[in-house]
Specification:
heterodimer, A: alpha+beta, 3-stranded antiparallel β-sheet, B: alpha/beta, Beta Polymerase, domain 2, two-stranded parallel ribbon
């Protein structure tokens, strides 16, 4: 059978950001893939070296939208590590709350998109309606539905009053039953299982080989979560059950995300219960000395790593980061191998790709 | 010293054939981070092999050209590895001009994109890379983009969607773009 190459863009791939694929096909089966990245490359790693450490908090939050809180919080952690800044305990909990709220919204968005791609319109609507509870919560607490502006060097820029903490607890309570129901539907509905089970499989061995992280790795049986392996902020005091599946298919990735969304509700509840009173930022900040640091966090798509090198000025000598989507793209070569062309959008979206993050 | 620290020091020394001192730091949460300096580019492949033997994972590669290094006539690379939650960074220096480093893709497949990326941003050649094409930047942009002034409108591949699509399709002049119906996929969703 002859091999043909088809070019797929964001519209055909069901992506809201631009990424292009050159797909080799034999008949209607995929036999090869070349990912064409860089359409939203903005040279951000160069831009951050021309702004001071404080300005970079704002810039990094605009790297992408769905995981926008993970970037400034991880960057601030790197600065604090170099300068020896100890952030107040209350600020650690407030950072975790912001991260987990973003995780719920991000995961529900992806599960909604998966439903949309497989033609389950009502389920798409259901997932997005549940997500809307968190969107409203973000707007009420942070004043914005996507970029929270929650972080600063030395702590956070927001606090929860007893009234707003009560509101947040109420919103979490509203999430519990609908999230459980959504998980039940994704796990048991025959029509959804038929479209997602055994599709886009990545074996554990291939997952290790490609170095994938986050829900994509955990769906292959890799029990790795930065919040547990390298605890940061309040996570060393929170009880976290890591969601792991074994099958490595589209269904397993969706189930991991839905279980993580439910777990995030629990984590925020723990934060509200355990958060001590006190300041939310360090009063006096020292000069940032020359040095280098690694900071990591578990962003919605997996391990986010920052490397910061400073020279004693307020401008970074080098600031480099690697997002979780970075390795997941290449692993699509395995996930798509032998799959039907019609399954490409579903499998691509099952890695929950972030293109603005990848390209930078 | 923990078991991991002993194993890493032994594996790196055995792999590279010389002692590799590693500086270990614990943060306030007890998370361990290791830093070490390799002697030169020839050490990276055996060091990568040694870390693969400890079930390490390549997390990221950072290329950088600080003002201080420039004065010394060198540029720097940092390879960051994960060892089940511990991050180990291997630093090495390369000459400012004619910098070359062997690819570690035979050991860590995910080095592929990392190496392609630093090859297009900095004046560093990776030898033995299986696919040394541009990763993010268009082939028309001058090499070592982070070491020269390039106008933003030129730097960004997606400056115009029509120009972008023309570039994407340039390699397949006989092909027409499939419509939404070709994959059975409905319209996209925005966040």
């Amino acid at each position: 059978m002859s091999t043909k190459v088809i070019t797929l863009g964001p519209r055909q791939l069901a992506l809201e950001e631009p990424m292009y694929f050159k797909v080799q096909v034999e008949g209607d089966l995929v036999v090869g893939l070349d990912v064409i990245a860089g359409q939203v490359h903005r040279g951000m790693e160069h831009l951050v070296m021309n702004r001071n450490l404080y300005q970079n908090i704002t810039l990094l939050e605009r790297l992408c939208s769905l995981c926008s809180n993970s970037h400034p919080s991880t960057f601030c952690t790197a600065v604090e590590e170099i300068a020896g800044i100890v952030i107040p305990p209350r600020a650690e909990y407030l950072r975790a709350i912001a991260d987990e709220i973003k995780r719920i919204s991000s995961h529900l968005f992806n599960c909604g998109v998966i439903a949309h791609v497989i033609g389950q319109g009502p389920l798409f609507k259901q997932a997005m309606e549940i997500r809307e509870i968190m969107q409203d919560t973000k707007e009420s607490i942070y004043g914005n539905r996507m970029d929270l502006a929650a972080n600063c060097i030395g702590g956070v820029r927001y606090d929860l009053t007893p009234e707003s903490a009560g509101y947040l607890a109420g919103q979490l309570e509203r999430m519990k039953a609908p999230l459980d129901e959504l998980l039940r539907i994704y796990a048991t509905d025959p029509a959804i299982r038929d479209r997602t089970e055994g599709v886009g499989v990545l074996t554990r061995r291939d997952a290790v080989d490609f170095g994938v992280v986050g829900p994509v790795a955990r769906a292959c049986g890799i029990n790795y979560d930065v919040r547990q392996k390298s605890p940061y902020g309040a996570y060393d005091r929170l009880h976290l059950t890591v969601a792991v599946e074994k099958e490595g298919d589209v269904r397993a990735r969706a189930l991991v995300r839905l279980r993580e969304a439910r777990e995030a509700v629990s984590l925020i509840g723990q934060c509200l219960a355990d958060m001590p009173a006190g300041p939310v930022w360090a009063d006096i900040l020292p000069e940032i000395p020359a040095g280098e640091a690694i900071a990591k966090s578990e962003a919605p798509r997996g391990e986010l790593i920052y490397y910061l090198n400073t020279d004693g000025s307020d401008m970074p000598a080098r600031l480099k980061w690697r997002v979780p989507s970075y390795m997941n793209w290449d692993a699509l070569k395995v996930m798509l191998q032998g799959e039907k062309v019609s399954n490409i959008p579903l499998i691509v979206n099952s890695i929950d790709p972030c293109i603005s993050c990848t390209d930078r | 010293m923990s078991n991991l620290q002993i194993k890493v020091a032994a594996a790196l020394s055995r792999g590279t054939g010389s002692e590799v001192p590693v500086q270990w730091n614990h943060d306030r949460k007890g998370v361990l981070t290791g830093w070490c300096q390799l002697r030169g580019p020839a050490s990276i492949l055996p060091a990568a092999l040694a870390l693969a033997g400890l079930e390490g994972r390549l997390s990221m590669v950072t290329a950088y050209l600080s003002a201080a290094a420039k004065l010394r006539g060198v540029r720097e690379l940092a390879y960051h590895f994960d060892l089940d939650g511990t991050t180990l960074t291997l630093h090495l220096e390369l000459p400012l001009l004619g910098a070359r480093i062997p690819s570690i893709t035979p050991v860590f497949r995910n080095a592929d994109w990392n190496e392609r990326e630093f090859m297009e941003l900095y004046d560093i050649q990776v030898t033995g890379h299986p696919d040394p094409r541009r990763l993010f930047l268009d082939a028309s942009i001058e090499p070592a983009a982070f070491e020269r002034l390039i106008p933003y409108s030129t730097f960004s591949s997606g400056a115009s969607s029509k120009a972008l699509w023309d570039k994407v399709m340039a390699d397949n002049p006989g092909e027409t773009a499939p419509g939404a119906g070709a994959t059975g996929y409905p319209n996209e969703v925005t966040p």
